[in-house]
Amino acid sequence: MSTSQTFQAPEPAVLVLEDGTRHPGNAYGARGTTLGEVVFATAMTGYQETITDPSYAGQIVLQTAPHIGNTGMNGEDHESRRIWVSGYVVRDPSRIVSNWRSDHSLEDALVRDGIVGISGIDTRAVTRVLRSAGSMRGGVFSGDAAALSDEEQLRIVREAPQMAGQNLSSEVSVDAAEVTPAVGERIGNLAILDLGVKQATVNNLAARGFEVHVLPQSTTIADVEAIDPVAVFYSNGPGDPAASDRHVALLREVLDRKLPFFGICFGNQLFGRALGFGTYKLPFGHRGINQPVLDKTTGRVEITAHNHGFAVDAPIEGVIDSPNGYGRVEVSHVGLNDNVVEGLRALDLPAFSVQYHPEAAAGPHDANYLFDRFRDLVIATLETKKNA
């Protein structure tokens, strides 16, 4: 009996960057055309958490680790309701799935959610281009779109919008409030402005005794006050913080009321803008679970999970007066690779933020203490009000 199998040649695909460089490969995931900002992620694990992170909306994510997909996908590790990456680029996708928790393959998940990808290209070579020239617009073309002329594909890429100036919060936020009960001794209601929140963040906050109210990005201060919150939290999310003036204005109303505040990632950038600092676009951003950060309060170096293409423009050293009148502020955390601001702390208000992801999904647990720091800040603020 013959054991031979019919060989099926891979379907062609191509990654086109706006500088005109082309990287032919094989179709992976859904077929068609996708456009976005091409960025690289340096994590060797955690691809399921990465692609379901709403912060990646509008971005074509390239994995620098060469072998992706070997543990498949499962129903427990999603960070949101769907895959958010605009496209996906890998070098060597696993041909089989080898994990007891898996219930389907990575490629099946990409097809299901309509994510156009490409495999079989030299991802390290593309990464070197992005590290030198910076993140840039790109497109993946497969199926019928792979047969378009080089000139037509490049034209389509160059007509795509730049990431700078985009407000993507409405695309990723919930439409109506969602509530997660507190675990253990209840502290009170926590208002989360959902700009692209991850489920691990919600779980960590609920585990600290907060009844977590995830609110739509269109929320007003009246909506926030209606749940009688003990604190407010701004989540991670995609887009340019300079295009989110309404969310900055809401945060200033929160700070005016001296409600305890904690923000991560996009929330850190909006906190910086609320305090009166500017933000700027990084050349190629920080994306991965291996980024070293110095906590200036403790002197400890943490290995942390990052996903940000913008950063706060504030002095690294010393205490600064908030340009918007919120008292003294200091940079609390600094990225050791490039001295980027990775955290802010208000000294005259119960408010702080970090640029990275303490929920560790995926990623190390070095920064998980920040959720405890927030809980302690809220409890101390409630005690002060009680004794006033």
Describe this structure in words.
By secondary structure, the chain is an alpha/beta fold. It folds into two domains: 12-158, Glucose Oxidase, domain 1, CATH 3.50.30; 169-387, Class I glutamine amidotransferase (GATase) domain (Rossmann fold, 3-Layer(aba) Sandwich). It is built from ten helices and 20 strands. It has helices at 47-51, 106-112, 123-133, 150-158, 169-172, 199-207, 221-226, 245-256, 266-275, 369-387; strands at 12-17, 22-29, 33-41, 59-63, 67-68, 87-89, 92-93, 116-119, 136-142, 178-180, 188-193, 210-215, 229-234, 261-264, 278-295, 300-313, 319-321, 328-335, 341-346, 351-354. The strands form three sheets. Strands 10, 11, 12, 13, 14, 15, 16, 17, 18, 19 and 20 form an eleven-stranded mixed beta sheet that branches. α8 (245-256) packs across α9. Residues 1-5 have low confidence and may be disordered. Composed of two chains; the small (or glutamine) chain promotes the hydrolysis of glutamine to ammonia, which is used by the large (or ammonia) chain to synthesize carbamoyl phosphate. Tetramer of heterodimers (alpha,beta)4. L-glutamine binds at residues 55, 237, 239, 266, 269, 307, 309-310. This is Carbamoyl phosphate synthase small chain.
Summarize the structure.
Helices cover 24% and strands 32% of the residues. With 388 residues, the protein is α/β, with parallel strands linked by helices.
Task: Quickly list its features.
388 residues, alpha/beta, Glucose Oxidase, domain 1, Rossmann fold, eleven-stranded mixed beta sheet, seven-stranded mixed barrel, 10 helices, 24% helix, 32% strand, globular, Carbamoyl phosphate synthase small chain, arginine biosynthesis, CarbamoylP_synth_ssu_N, amino-acid biosynthesis
